[in-house]
């Protein structure tokens, strides 16, 4: 095999640099292009730009509309996690209208969102990400690795039943592999669970500010529970399958931990409201944020900087630098102080005005429709390019460190998260433990994803119990009446499947004066900001070693794709990667492999 | 693969293909929600079509970004480029997302799909439609955005986007002689789309006539009825019994449901596997399948103007009928008096051979 140990410092050989681009990136949601320079002599990516080529303008066309429409409209931002937007919008509206969802309504929303995580992470991991780890792909990119996998015993065989790593890889072959097909079925069962709670997928029909329209009959919870029990075997096996494959990669390809690696700079905005604590008042946001069943927080180099949603909110800055927009600094601010009297920055989403300016793509200047969200750290004075690690990685990391979540099914230990799943058809009760890993890299982002499916399933068991207990006690209210005020502000914080999601709302004269949703992908897929700081995809891919055995002529770029996909890109929230202006270099687009492949 | 000479405009290419490509572009003003919805279908499932499990269909080569086994880039674009050069036939072009107005964007682009091989400049969605639609054996619009413009074509939008028939003309005919096949929905109901696609594929195989479409180019058997006609809360409507807020299992027409005037089958069919829906499960119909969506239905949570008149008219009749039915219902809830444990038979049976 040609792959050597990564040399992150001085390159040994005379560089042989080529431009390689992948546009569009497949097996993600939305439009993303990745443009790189690769040094094939030293098998290293030397430069990377990421860009999104789609602009639709939600914050533009929502102005002047009825605020109650916001949840319905913003759901359409995304075709795989739209319900996260509806939920987040409802949180922001609840704050603005000064209302609180009845507890059973919260429980129903928690169950819906838990099903969304289970659905989305399963289909993305097994049907999109794992194609990069399947036999067909490994055969084309690393034949000697596949040969080794044929003889590598799978440590988790007792749980999942596959004897060797190569057998597991075959089970993920698209449309033909056993796990691939099973995952599609599970993604349907979990979507049925979602539809029970939120009406339909992915744009919910029964979710409103003030609550839900879902009828809380015992049948509702029984139908959900029976489907949850149906998939528990699959969830337990998935964790074992993923661990086996990723551990094999570390062992068989020394240095693979560098693929997609960047500093630990993580954001998590929290999810699963605790109905006993949440009142949606900004003044109490610190408390009800910490009561969430996934703890919000910001982690820098392994240290938890904050778990306070007010701190998190005030630190958000939207930078430009490489995006097709005119700056808004000379526009009128909407919110100069938060409800606690803290000053609100002009670059904060509450004060943003979106001024689109389409232009030519120029990687030295402006090259993306994505803006550059950053988090301003008051202590260091830096604008941190936080990522979400695809969502689950940051969620598990902050929850593990914070030590606040303590439920019968999920417990934070301060260094790990323990997830208990009840007995299922073929497998006994199990406690899975996700421990904070050494690196923030592609494999650990992927591994966290499968653990979070277990996390969501475990929390769902608790939510079912809570829901049934309320219904049995005769408490069946799910919706609170409200009036839209003439003047108000609101903010919603929620973990979308892919990570941090915020909605900032300003109401004037009873209409939307400003509305800015910030999903996870603008954070992850952002271009270089006004300080020149690359976005997380760019940062994770730049200086990354290449382990693929192919030379430039038939290079597929699978390691780069694994790095990018580990973030679970979802570009209706936006991205493109590029080649710099240095010396040229032989031009080469990613090669063609014939036309027809089902 | 069948190769055919490029046909004259207006002259339809024969069908009866053994193999067909599906070139699916979701780079419109879209959220990819229709692609995602299609993976929820079970009647038939996408994998059953792709792996040839459904009898009588041509072999299908699906080229869809989300499900593509390729790593992306040129490997993924190859069949699209070949088709644009006229070297890949026959193919069905599926468009997801609305079509922006690229005449108003200066030097830039609202959305692109790959780059021009020579200049490296982004190729717009509109370029692809201009080059692929005239060569496509059939053209299918997936979702309300691609069919009629949808949410991204809302009043005040910056991109000036539109539906496929607005862009190509409603008299457009594919090389297979078909008009654009519109499958609206935000997102498309999973089985609705797969059922329509399989009809088109049966037609491609030569075993079915063209799918019957209405004047808005929707499949008639799916969109011929209204939400209300298939809604199991319509009984409340008839009895003049309306929900006052979202806590109620009653008819939602006074709290925002547009079901009585919307062409859609979701309450009848369920969302997936018969589960879920909209007004049948407490979610007001916001008319997401309709050409007038969303502007003609906002604010969504207000009563539709027509609803106040019809609900007022139905009220006295409904209240009376509900009372009458209440009386009959309590009769129906009482068992006949001959069901008892006394030492006599009072059912009316007469054992005339016994003394």
From TrEMBL, chain A:
Do you know which InterPro entries this protein is assigned to?
Ni-dep_hyd_lsu, NiFe-Hase_large, NiFe/NiFeSe_hydrgnase_LSU
Q: Tell me which domain of life the UniProt entry assigns to the organism this sequence originates from.
A: Bacteria
Organism from which the protein derives:
Amycolatopsis taiwanensis
**Positions of Mg(2+) binding:** 576
Q: Which residues bind Ni(2+)?
A: 78, 81, 570
Annotated residues for binding of Fe cation: 573
Q: Which UniProt keywords apply?
A: Iron, Magnesium, Metal-binding, Nickel
Protein name in UniProt: Hydrogenase large subunit
Q: Which GO terms describe its molecular function?
A: nickel cation binding
Cofactor(s) it depends on: Fe cation; Ni(2+)
From TrEMBL, chain B:
Q: NADH:ubiquinone oxidoreductase-like 20kDa subunit domain location, by residue? A: 31-198
Cofactor names: [4Fe-4S] cluster
GO BP of this protein? anaerobic respiration
Question: Where does it reside?
Answer: Cell envelope
List of residues binding [4Fe-4S] cluster 2 = 228, 231, 251, 257
Query: Which residues hold [3Fe-4S] cluster?
Result: 285, 288
Family the UniProt entry places it in: Belongs to the [NiFe]/[NiFeSe] hydrogenase small subunit family.
Subunit text: Heterodimer of a large and a small subunit.
Protein name, please?
A: Hydrogenase expression protein HypE
């Amino acid at each position: 095999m040609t792959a050597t140990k990564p040399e992150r410092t001085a390159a040994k050989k005379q560089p042989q640099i080529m431009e390689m681009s992948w546009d569009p990136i497949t097996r993600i949601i939305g439009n993303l292009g990745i443009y790189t320079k690769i040094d094939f002599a030293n098998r290293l990516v030397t430069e990377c730009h990421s860009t999104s080529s789609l602009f639709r303008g939600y914050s533009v066309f929502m102005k002047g509309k009825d605020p109650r429409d916001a949840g319905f409209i913003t759901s359409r931002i995304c075709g795989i996690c739209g319900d996260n937007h509806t939920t987040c919008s409802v949180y922001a509206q609840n704050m603005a209208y000064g209302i609180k969802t009845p507890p059973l309504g919260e429980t129903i929303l928690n169950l819906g969102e838990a099903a969304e995580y289970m659905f989305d992470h399963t289909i993305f991991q097994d049907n999109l990400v794992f194609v990069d780890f399947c036999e067909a792909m490994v055969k084309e990119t690393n034949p000697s690795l596949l040969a080794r996998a044929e003889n590598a015993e799978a440590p988790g065989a007792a749980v999942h039943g596959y004897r060797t790593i190569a057998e597991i890889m075959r089970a993920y072959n698209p449309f033909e592999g056993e796990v691939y097909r099973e995952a599609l079925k599970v993604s349907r069962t979990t979507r049925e669970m979602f539809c029970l709670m939120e009406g339909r997928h992915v744009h919910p029909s029964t979710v409103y500010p003030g609550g839900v329209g879902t009828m809380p009959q015992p049948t509702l919870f029984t139908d959900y529970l029976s489907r949850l029990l149906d998939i528990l075997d699959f969830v337990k096996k998935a964790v074992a399958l993923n661990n086996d494959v990723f551990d094999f990669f570390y062992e068989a390809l020394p240095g693979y931990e560098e693929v997609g690696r960047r500093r630990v700079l993580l954001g998590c905005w929290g999810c699963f409201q605790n109905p006993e604590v949440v009142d949606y008042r900004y003044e109490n946001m610190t408390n009800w944020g910490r009561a969430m069943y996934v703890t919000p927080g910001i982690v820098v180099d392994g240290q938890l900087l904050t778990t306070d949603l007010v701190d998190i909110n005030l630190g958000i800055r939207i930078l430009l630098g490489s995006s097709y927009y005119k700056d808004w600094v000379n526009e009128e601010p909407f919110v100069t102080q938060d409800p606690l009297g803290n000053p609100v920055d002009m670059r904060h989403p509450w004060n943003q005005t979106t001024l689109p300016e389409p232009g030519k793509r120029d990687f030295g200047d402006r090259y993306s429709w994505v803006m550059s969200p950053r988090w301003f750290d008051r202590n260091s004075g830096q604008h941190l390019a936080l990522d979400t690690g695809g969502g689950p990685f940051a969620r598990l990391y902050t929850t593990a460190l914070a030590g606040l979540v303590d439920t019968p099914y999920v417990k934070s230990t301060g260094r790990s998260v323990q997830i208990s799943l009840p007995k299922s058809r073929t497998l006994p009760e199990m406690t899975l433990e996700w421990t904070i890993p050494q690196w923030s890299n592609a494999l650990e982002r992927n591994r966290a994803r499968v653990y979070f499916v277990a996390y969501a399933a475990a929390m769902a068991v608790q939510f079912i119990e809570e829901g049934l207990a309320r219904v049995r006690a005769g408490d069946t209210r799910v919706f609170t009446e409200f009036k839209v005020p003439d003047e108000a502000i609101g903010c919603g914080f929620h973990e979308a499947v892919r990570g941090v999601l915020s909605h900032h709302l300003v109401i004037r004269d009873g209409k939307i004066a400003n509305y800015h949703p910030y999903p996870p992908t603008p954070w992850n897929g952002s271009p270089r900001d006004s300080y020149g700081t690359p976005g997380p995809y760019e940062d994770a891919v730049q200086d990354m070693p290449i382990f693929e055995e192919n030379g430039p002529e038939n290079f597929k770029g699978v390691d780069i794709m694994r790095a990018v996909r580990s973030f679970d890109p979802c570009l209706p929230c936006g991205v493109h990667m590029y080649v710099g202006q240095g010396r040229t270099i032989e031009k080469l687009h990613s090669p063609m492999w014939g036309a027809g492949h089902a | 693969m069948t190769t055919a000479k490029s046909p004259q405009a207006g002259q339809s290419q024969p069908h009866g293909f053994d193999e067909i490509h599906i070139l699916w572009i979701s780079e419109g003003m879209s959220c990819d929600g229709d692609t995602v919805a299609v993976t929820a279908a079970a009647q038939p499932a996408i994998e059953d079509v792709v792996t040839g499990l459904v009898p009588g269909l041509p072999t299908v080569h699906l080229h869809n970004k989300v499900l593509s086994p390729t790593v992306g880039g040129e490997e993924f674009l190859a069949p699209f480029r070949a088709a644009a050069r006229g070297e890949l036939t026959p193919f069905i072009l599926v468009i997801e997302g609305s079509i922006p107005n690229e005449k108003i964007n200066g030097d830039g682009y609202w959305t692109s799909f790959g780059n021009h091989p020579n200049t490296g400049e982004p190729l717009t969605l509109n370029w692809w439609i201009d080059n692929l639609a005239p060569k496509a054996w059939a053209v299918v619009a997936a979702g309300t955005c691609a069919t009629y413009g949808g949410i991204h074509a809302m009043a005040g939008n910056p991109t000036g986007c539109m539906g496929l028939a607005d862009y190509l003309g409603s008299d457009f005919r594919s090389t297979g002689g078909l008009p654009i096949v519109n499958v609206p929905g935000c997102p498309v109901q999973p089985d609705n789309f797969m059922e329509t696609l399989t009809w088109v594929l049966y037609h491609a195989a030569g075993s079915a006539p063209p799918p019957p479409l209405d004047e808005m180019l929707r499949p008639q058997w799916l969109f011929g009825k209204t939400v209300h006609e298939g809604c199991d809360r319509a009984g409340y409507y008839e009895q003049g019994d309306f929900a006052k807020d979202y806590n109620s299992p009653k008819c939602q027409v006074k709290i925002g449901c547009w079901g009585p005037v919307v062409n859609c089958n979701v309450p009848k069919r369920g969302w997936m596997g018969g589960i879920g829906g909209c007004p049948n499960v407490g979610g007001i119909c916001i008319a997401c399948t309709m050409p007038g969506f969303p502007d003609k239905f906002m604010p969504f949570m207000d009563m539709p103007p027509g609803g106040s008149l019809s609900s007022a008219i139905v009220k006295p009749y409904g209240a009376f009928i509900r009372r009458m039915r209440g009386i009959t219902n309590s009769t129906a809830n009482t068992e006949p008096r001959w069901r008892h444990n006394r030492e006599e038979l009072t059912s009316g049976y007469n054992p005339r051979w016994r003394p």
